[in-house]
Write a structure and sequence with these properties.
By secondary structure, the chain is mostly helical. It has a domain at about 40-105. The chain is built from 4 helices and no strands. Helix 3 packs across helix 4 (about 85-105). The longest helix has about 30 residues, at about 50-80. The protein is flat. It comes from Escherichia coli. This is Glucuronide transporter.
């Protein structure tokens, strides 16, 4: 059973790479830049001067790190505690559903009093 999954994973990965290469070779960028792209130094100076932008970047970085941490801990749990990696998809779907439910119905957004 594992060899069947392994075979189809390789086949689909190769097909994806071929299609990606075809897409890459067949498209051309037609954007004319009016202003030169700012250097890294200018971008870092902008971050230093713009506190809301800096906080937004830090927040996005924290969300990204927490997403990777939750995924890694979930994979560890299904692999070593439950001994069934097939449950990883189920666990991710349940987590996603709970997050969406909590955001829309459970916690609200603070507008209940209005």
């Amino acid at each position: 059973m594992v060899s069947v999954y392994h075979f189809w994973t390789i086949v689909l990965a190769i097909a994806g790479m071929v299609l990606y290469f075809i897409c890459f070779k067949s498209t051309r960028e037609n954007v004319v830049r009016i202003v030169a792209q700012p250097s890294l130094n200018i971008s870092l100076q902008t971050l230093k001067r713009n506190r809301p932008l800096f906080m937004l970047c830090i927040g996005a970085l924290c969300v990204l790190i927490s997403t990777f941490a939750v995924s890694a801990s979930s994979l560890f749990y299904v692999r070593y505690v439950l001994n069934d990696t097939g449950l990883f998809t189920v666990l991710v779907l349940v987590q996603t559903w709970l997050v969406l439910w909590h955001r829309t119905a459970g916690a609200g957004d603070g507008r209940e009093d209005r």
